[in-house]
Design a protein that fits this description.
nucleoside diphosphate phosphatase activity, magnesium ion binding, FomD barrel-like fold, ribonucleoside triphosphate phosphatase activity, magnesium, about 40% strand, EC 3.6.1.6
Length: about 180
């Protein structure tokens, strides 16, 4: 099993349950890469949608992926604070210089004051029927929504007060280091 290496540039590939590509982030710098965790940073990276449209991310982000949790967390650093976008998803795999996961539609948006909103329940229901999500997926995702909410309330993982400070400063170091190469 190959692992992403700190400082390496990788892509992020999001798929849907039917195996079709959903979205690709072109460039993310690996800040930590182990068998279980990948933490990356990006800023103004190109994102390609499944229909070929592209857009540019607007702010620096720290991305957290775990091989045992059914979610990933994008921490977006904005002028008025850190916003978190939590995707309910399969655990990640790393192959061909890309972090890959299946996006299961449900999302939790977390605001700088740690209030949060569950999003896209209607999209989840539509895709659950359309793509035939098995009942076990539904149970796993509900448990992981509950786990994410506990993490938010307990300020665990990426929601911990020092998480962004540590990883964003490491990202800035990697950017400066890469410019000198």
């Amino acid at each position: 099993m190959t692992l992403p290496v700190e400082g390496q540039s990788i892509q992020i590939h999001s798929y849907k349950h039917d195996g079709l590509i959903h979205r690709v982030w072109q460039e993310t710098t690996v800040l930590k890469g182990t068998r279980n965790i990948v933490i990356g940073g990006n800023d103004r990276t190109i994102v390609t949608e499944s229909d070929g449209r592209t857009w540019l991310t607007r702010e620096p982000a720290i991305c957290y992926f775990h091989a045992e949790h059914w979610f990933n967390i994008i921490c977006m650093l904005r002028d008025d604070g850190v916003y978190y976008y939590c995707n309910l998803s399969s655990p990640f795999v790393y192959e061909d210089k890309a972090v890959k996961y299946i996006d299961y539609d449900l999302d939790i948006k977390v605001y700088p004051d740690m209030s949060y909103t569950l999003l896209d329940e209607d999209e989840y229901e539509e895709h659950r029927k359309l793509m035939g999500y098995p009942p076990v997926i539904d149970r796993i995702l509900q448990r992981n929504v509950d786990k994410l909410i506990r993490w938010i309330k307990q300020r665990r993982g990426p929601f911990a007060p020092d998480f962004i400070d540590v990883w964003y400063s490491r990202y800035q170091f990697q950017k400066r280091y890469r410019l000198k190469e």
